[in-house]
User: What shape does this take?
Amino acid sequence: MRKLLIGAFSLALAGLAAGSAGAADKKVTIAVSIPAADHGWTGGVVFHAERAAKLLEANHPGLKIIVKTSPDGASQANALEDLSTQGIDALVTLPHNSDELTDPIRQVKAKGTFITVVDRALSDNTVADLYVAGNNPELGRVAGDYMKEKLAGGGDIVVIRGLPIVIDEERQKGFDDAIAGSKIKVLDKQFGNWSRDDAFKVMQDYLSKYQKIDAVWCQDDDMAVGVLEAIKQAGRKDIKFVVGGAGMKEMIKRVADGDAMIPVDVLYPPAMVATALELTVANFYDQVPVRGSYILNATLVTKDNAMEYYFPDSPF
Assistant: This one.
């Protein structure tokens, strides 16, 4: 799929907000199928999906958006079948996993439904009309570039990876490429399963094994919470800072407040589901081309720009 440029959407989204009265009355039903909030980031996805649905329905009286959450892949497959029987015009979905959900989503598409896939690409890329996601390689690269700048004179770091899947590999490669040739030494890499509890245990192990650690990179803000708690309980003062990612509100607030332990964050925002919904709606109400891939930037959040990304009402 080709990449869609941000500038190309500015007019589309402006038109979406305004909308003519006639177009707004057009009857369109969009289903949103996403994972239930089993951890912080997916809680943010649910929050932003429901928030965007209310705003978009208010702008378009003829629009109906059905938000359905599922606890696992099998439940999501069943939910997709049920939603499809309701005569939906479009499906916006964040699949629990690519392999299990590709065929069920393909069956929805076969009925003439517009398909928007969020975050986790399907096994068959031709199924999606629109793909909206964060930039995983860039998330790792941006974090690595920051580490390289802050530890220009050299330093010992530890890494906490996510899960052994493609997203993790992309983030890790981006990070490794960014620090290649620097004076940074990676002492250890272990999986924290994008879980604050698991990351807490991994960090405890690191703290017992290594007497000097200058910084920590973990792929997810949920894990950063566990890392910070382990450091606090151990009373270690050698660790200068922790870099996480995703845009958890607690981490964004710490960046905004100038917390030395969380000087920056790297965005992989759950609000991408709202972007996906807005673009899908634009396809029906504004008659603008939205087919393709829309990849959000992995923005480095600093004290200067943090409040632009702070959503206090979000669960994440």
Observations:
- Residues 40-59 form the longest helix (20 residues).
- The longest strand covers residues 28-35.
